[in-house]
Design goal:
The protein contains six helices and ten strands, in the order H-H-H-E-E-H-E-E-H-E-E-H-E-E-E-E. The strands form two sheets. It has a five-stranded mixed beta sheet with strand order 2-1-10-5-6. The protein folds into two domains: 2-54, no CATH class; 65-258, Sulfite Oxidase, Chain A, domain 2 (Alpha-Beta Complex), CATH 3.90.420.10. The radius of gyration is 27 Å and the shape is elongated. The chain has helices spanning 2-15, 23-54, 65-81, 133-137, 165-171, 198-201; strands at 119-122, 128-131, 142-149, 155-164, 182-186, 193-197, 207-212, 215-216, 226-228, 243-247. The chain is α+β, with helices and mostly antiparallel strands. The longest helix has 32 residues, at 23-54.
Length: 266
């Protein structure tokens, strides 16, 4: 620290060598000294703060605990102000991309047998509800064309269709289940999984989706059933839903375990 101060003193000495100054010169000199001093102090403070942050212990995902606390604080704030009456902006079909971007293939193994697929819903009672695709297709269909957003920074207007999760809850009498705070979803092979707050799942634009651009989902987009949840970033829009559970504790979440924000809300 003494060496830093000595260099600063030397620098100012060279910059403002002895000579006569007018009142204007003196004012310029004063402001320059003040500005440079403030800049150096802030720069040094920022460096020390950064080093302090890097020295903090990390959680299991490798995120500094103070940063994780910040994310959790943001989650509490967003949860309090969440309004299921606030709808995501939608677009006309003419603006929907015909070639929908694929981002992430975890849980979409090539050994998947779609002919034997059923949706497994774990009830509060402990019983498992098995729902075939034919029953889901028989429920009222809802379409949405919106700007799908990825945490990587890209977005794309895309066209999806399926059954509202809230309608699905009504059909299968899952009212006790959605009194719980969270919904956990995972692929049939259990390699990809997400945890989502129940109010976001019950948002009127959240779909159990089986169509893209008026056709059944391609395998790479999660056939036969995926989640479309416009109030969340793409990492929460799980492809190929196999199992659904309800819990008052946060279910495990693939990207949260790898350092990302658990809430991932928009």
């Amino acid at each position: 620290m003494k060496k830093v101060l000595a260099k600063i003193t030397w620098f100012f000495g060279k910059l403002f060598g002895r000579r006569k100054y007018t009142s204007v010169d003196q004012e310029i000199r004063r402001k320059t000294v003040v500005s440079l001093s403030v800049f150096i102090i802030l720069l040094f403070s920022g460096y020390k703060a950064l080093m302090w942050l890097f020295d903090q212990p990390e959680d299991a995902a490798g995120v500094e605990k103070h940063l994780r606390k910040g994310l959790e604080t943001n989650e509490k704030i967003f949860t309090k102000i969440f309004d299921d009456g606030h709808l995501v902006k939608t677009f006309p079909k003419s603006e929907a991309a015909q070639k929908v971007r694929v981002n992430g293939e975890i849980g979409l193994g090539s050994d998947f047998d779609y002919k034997n697929w059923v949706l497994n819903i774990k009830r509060v009672s402990g019983e498992t509800l098995l729902v075939p695709l034919s029953e889901i297709l028989a429920l009222p269909k809802t379409e949405i064309i919106y700007d799908f957003k990825c945490v990587e920074g890209w977005s794309q207007v895309s066209h999806w269709a399926g059954v509202k999760f809230s309608d699905f809850v009504e059909k299968y009498n899952l009212h006790e289940e959605v009194k719980m705070g969270y919904v956990g979803l995972e692929t049939p092979d259990k390699k990809y999984y997400v945890g989502i707050d129940t109010p976001s799942m019950m948002h009127p634009q959240t779909l159990l989706c089986y169509e893209m651009n008026n056709n059944y989902l391609p395998l790479i987009q999660g056939y036969p059933l995926r989640l479309i949840i416009p109030v969340k970033y793409g990492i929460k829009n799980l492809k190929r839903i196999g199992n659904v559970v309800f819990s008052n504790e946060k279910p495990h979440d693939y990207w949260a375990e790898n350092g990302y924000d658990y809430y991932s809300g928009l």
